[in-house]
Amino acid sequence: MRLLCALLLFVVGNQTFVCDCGPVGLTEAFISSDFVAQIKIIEVYPNQNQDEIYKADIEIVELFKGPTLTSIYIRGRSDGKMGSSCSVYFPKGSELVIAANSFGKGMYSFGACSYTINLKNNYRNTNRNIEVLRSISAYDNTLTARYFPIISSNFYDFLDSKKGLLLIEKFALFEVNLEDLTNPSQVKMIKGFGNDLDDEILKELYQSTWEIRFFDEESEAQGKLKVIVSVYFYPAEGEYKSFLSTNSL
Questions:
Q1: CA distances (Å), origin 190, targets 16, 135, 187, 201
Q2: pLDDT in tens, 121-132
Q3: Which residues of 221-231 are buried (b: 16+ CB within 10 A; e: fewer)?
Q4: How many Å is the maximal CA-CA distance in the chain?
Q5: pLDDT tens digits, one per residue of 100-109
Q6: Closest Cα to residue 115, out of 129, 100, 102?
Q7: pLDDT at site 50
Q8: Burial class for 111, CB neighbours closer than 10 Å (0-12, 13-18, 19+)
Q9: String of b and e for 27-66 (b: at least 16 CB within 10 Å)?
Q10: Dist CA 76 CA 168 (whole Å)
Q11: What is the CB neighbour count within 10 angstroms for residue 70?
């Protein structure tokens, strides 16, 4: 599918970089970040020395998670000098949705490998992705963990079997509780599609198994762990049927 392949190039939120980053999903970004918000950059300060990080004052347009910040640090260069392949620059006036992490003493930063939506680029699913963040934030804006959850392939097979559906809602959200980090002990619907498909998804999630990859040893959790599963609906386009996906393209 040409459209899907093209969209998959946006591996970091809605931006494409040469920087070597793994794909960052929307719900994973929310859970693994300390600060998620729609912001406007109102002032940018020069890099200090040769450090590839600069400060920016911000206005919070909508806060989804974390403290109310007045400034943030961006991993890149604002002085016109050549940076690394992971260097990014957002000038004064930039309007973004960002997921950032704390790096001590009340300071938060984001960069090329962070989930970022540049609102001035007007991507087709921007409004939907913001609605997803609103829904998760309204449900639980304290969810924070350093892990990457991988669901068993049978769930993707189930989604693939639903090609050609006609749906009104653009996404659904579910919470999966893993008692032993592998098997679901409870599955709850946060927001559904509003039809029988919701019950089918719940059943499939109960039958799924999981692999949890922690970012580091300090992040490893004992006992119950929560995973937010998002299912997105992509309508038919041209010769291609509608489909469901866990990817926030």
A1: 31, 8, 10, 12
A2: 878 899 999 999
A3: eeeebbbbbbb
A4: 59
A5: 999 988 999 9
A6: 100
A7: 79
A8: buried
A9: bbbbbbbebbbbbebeebeebeeeebbbbbebebeebbbb
A10: 41
A11: 10
Retrieve residue 181's tokens. 């980090």
Alpha-carbon distances, residue 124 vs 120, 133, 139, 186 (angstroms):
12, 16, 25, 34
Contact 43, 125 (CB under 8 A): no
H or E stretch including 22? none
Answering whether pTM is above 0.85, one says yes
Structure tokens belonging to residue 99? 């997921």
Question: How many of the other CB atoms lie within 10 Å of CB of 243?
Answer: 18
CA neighbor of 137 nearest in space, from 25, 14, 35: 35
DSSP state of 222: -
Six-digit token pair at 95? 């309007």
Residue 169: what residue type?
E
The CA distance from 141 to 145, in Å, is 12
Which uninterrupted H or E stretch holds 176?
strand 171-178
- Pair type for strands 54-65 and 35-44: antiparallel
Helix/strand/coil for 177 = strand
3-state helix, strand and coil shares in percent for the chain, rounded to the nearest 5: 20, 35, 45
Residue holding tokens 């804006």? 141
Q: Which of 135, 166, 154, 142 is nearest to 248 (CA)?
A: 135
Amino acid 90: pLDDT: 94
Residue 19, C-beta contacts closer than 8 angstroms, at least 6 positions apart:
12, 84, 85, 86, 112, 113
